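[scheduler] slot 2 assigned
[scheduler] job type: sequence-to-structure, two independent chains
[scheduler] chain ordering preserved from manifest
[runner] begin chain α
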Amino acid sequence: MRAISILEAIYEESENEAVERHFMIANTSLGRLLLSRAEYARSLESFQTALGLLAGDQEESEMSCAKETKIIRIQAYLGLALGQFMLRDYQSSLVSSQEALSLAGDDLTMKGQIVVLFAQTLWALNTDETKETAKSQLLE
């Protein structure tokens, strides 16, 4: 947490793109750490901070570091979806999972991880329709 505070202070002073990128990565990593400690609400804050910074980073990312930015964005949405799922906010988890799925495109490795969470969330909604959709997602 101290590293994030330091990066944030440096970025606020300099608005350096490299520092901003490290700050995004640090927030995504912190979000994953908080998930592993079952601190779900706090993890959502970290993932949302990273996504907020990534939203402002779209123009730059199209020219350079596009693949890394895409991976960070997918990881942040996936972490957000997992945190929302653990907090039983299934509708938000579905939205975040769908966003991650659309960003993953043809990357089968990324898609595989996302589809499992997406299917679990659909199953947790506990309707016949969502259970059928979950099964079809897993079998695609």
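[runner] end chain α
[runner] begin chain β
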Amino acid sequence: MSVSNKKATTAMFKRVKIFLTDVDGVLTNATVILNGKTEFKQFNIQDGMGMRLLQHVGIPVGWVSNRKSAATTARAKELTVDYLWQKSLPKVAAVEAILKKAKLTWADACFMSDDINDLAVLDRVGLPIAVGNAMPDVKRAAKYVTTATGGQGAVREVCDKILCAHGHMPAILQRLRHPEGYREQ
């Protein structure tokens, strides 16, 4: 376990009321493939499941990016992401606007990052998180550094920690093992 992870506690994960994340390098492996005017990105399916589970228990999800991307918009729509910000403006303003709309505070928020353009946000949120392959300054600012790298399950790792800290995981697993309408014979 890295030194950064010793700063995060179960209580910090339990205080999370909104999950916010950067996109490129956190939800993806930071690779963008361009084919003429079409942009391709690779998103991790397990990360998507983690975010949907958070939403299912009432924790909203928001994505914050400084660049507009049709691929990001399509994936956010598919996952019914609660807040999507894709503007070339400071991310502090983006998160402030999202928190205001959600009627939450900086202390209520978790934010995941991989790069230094997010340091101002990481310095303000209640639970700053860096992906395993984040830049060194981001890791130093984080209270938790994921084992997984960006686009490779880092988001799911954090979602599971939040769900466990809130005590939701046993009920989620029970429902998935025995969905409505299922009858044991």
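[runner] end chain β
[qc] chain β: The CA atoms of residues 19 and 61 lie 5 Å apart.
[scheduler] slot 2 released
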